[in-house]
Amino acid sequence: DEIDAVETEEQLHSIIARFINTGIFIFINWRVEPYVLDRGSYSIILDLPNFMLPSLSYYLDANEAGMREVLRTFLIDTAILAGYPRAEAENSAEESISIEQELAGWIAQENDAMPQAGPMAVNMSTLVERYPGIPWRAILTRLTDHCETVGFDCLQSVKRDADKFLFIDLSYLERLSFALHTRPARSWIPLLRHSLIHWAAPFLDSRFRNAEFQLRRGLTAGFLPQPRWKFCIQRTGEALPSMTDMMFVSKFFTPQDSKVGGEVIRRLKTSFIHRLQNANWLDDPTRRRALSKAESMALNIGAPNNYMF
């Protein structure tokens, strides 16, 4: 209902932020990785979106019309299951695929040259200034609110406007920002609607699950559906790896286990450093670098004390 009620850019931004923080990477994807130019630092990689079809060529190649038809059938069937009239479901499916084709076309075009050293990190203020059509602050606010709700202190360096964001495709972000800012908010409803249904289908009743199976079978020869319970466990682990790790540790291990385990790995680290100090096959410069790295190794049992900066 909220998607179908979108009228303004503010409402559109709110939906996009909720999608991205739920794991529906409709326009952009982001992930946290070590920053290779600054050892010990982590950055948010701004990556390309997850499309409903697994390959850009399925959207752009005239010979792949069959794949687009498989997706079109899935979108129509699941929209009807969600309560939309057939005529609206058909029109919405066509518009959704058309939007994804356009996004895929932007990605396929020649992109800006990447610096030899890799992308340089920028801060939130720079993102907002360069790409105002993308709801950066709404995304950040929802993410940090989720962190605080479950007791985590995350993204503090981003709040301080530190340079934590790395670009994958500058040209794509420019086109996306311009389109989101200049086109009517309601023009994006078909893609929002079908992206949500596509993401949720495996978790809904057997009718949606069967439709999703037909989609996968049409795209991947020999695909067999998993039992529902196994699928749900797998998806939960993929979406919340740190959370599930912490739940496992808290259920099956005591605080005393953590102390014992911590002592074991501290002794292992001490032993490792001792061996480096006495390794006769290392020259002095190499030994110094190796010892510096070894001494900076962080030790975690079960889960780190802090997540994401």
From TrEMBL:
- Which domain of life does this protein belong to? Eukaryota
Name of one Pfam family that matches = Peptidase_M13_N
Q: Which GO terms describe its cellular component?
A: plasma membrane
Alphabetized InterPro entries for the sequence: Peptidase_M13, Peptidase_M13_dom_2, Peptidase_M13_N
Q: Which residues form the Peptidase M13 N-terminal domain?
A: 2-304
- One GO-annotated biological process of the protein: protein processing
GO MF annotation terms: metalloendopeptidase activity
| Protein name (Swiss-Prot/TrEMBL) | Peptidase M13 N-terminal domain-containing protein
